[in-house]
Input
Amino acid sequence: MSLFKRKNNTDTGKEYGPEGSGENRKKYPETDTPDPDGKNSSKDPRVPLLVADHLVYEYSRGTDHLVRALDDVSFSIKKGEFIGLIGHTGSGKSTLVQHLNALLSPVSGTVYFKGEDVFEKGYDRKKLRSKVGLVFQYPEHQLFEETVFADVCFGPKNIGMSRKQAELTAYETIKKVGLPDECFYHSPFDLSGGQKRRVAIAGVLAMKPELLVLDEPTAGLDPKGRDEILTMIDSLRADGEMAIVLVSHSMEDVAQYADRIMVIEKGKKLFDGTPHEVFSHIDELDEIGLAAPEMSYVMRELKKAGIDVNTNVLTIPEARDEILKALG
Output
């Protein structure tokens, strides 16, 4: 019997995820890792940290206003990956990421974290939410303690760290996100927008997640604050262990920082590949109203003008090098 079965929450008496439950729950074998997309190389020693398997989610079920927000979405995430998740407002991005730490339960399909079905009866979802940290859009709205230090300590204490451990972790995390020492005992509400965003991110990082999911982390920030937040987020993967999923409307941002991009359109996964692979579909992206990075259009115009350049260029440095090459 397969250990990797599709979950169906709408049927009774069906098999849900891996066989067994509680302490006896079986994992998918790490030597034979499930791969819904069929893209993982068997020679790659990094097994997936998380697998989403045929996720379906519907809003307003049982009414005339039924909306299928996710429609058979599958993918895997490996340790250390930086994934950009893009799509229009209402495409299903936020719904999708809320399945990754079981804030939402699918109608069918399931999510495996480190080999275990997170929707299996008896699974410790509180622990999951410390390991799959989700930073919502405008996360500063979740700040509530009197000081920055107390706010960042809250999460570690809540998952069972001792006071000493929580304070040490909070200190290290606040430094990691680049906040100055003088901010430690300030009210988080007295900080700038970018600094508040850093405090909120630090509060999630302090729980030492293995996967960090950020839903539009630069929304509402000025260009300077936006660049600082993105640079800080990019620095978090320095040790190559923590995976990051960045939900964004900015094609330039995901092109610059992500190793891999997934495009969600009307609840379906449309593309999944490297930035250059995904943005090579520039015409298809245009058809659904998702523009490619601006440099892609600049290079296409140069090509039309007779300059022999590669049009699959995403960033300003790439464009500069390509133009210099073409001009000899």
About this structure: The beta strands are 48-59, 67-78, 82-86, 108-113, 116-117, 132-135, 211-215, 243-247, 260-265, 268-273. The first strand starts at residue 48 and ends at 59. Residues 201 and 306 are 47 Å apart (CA to CA).
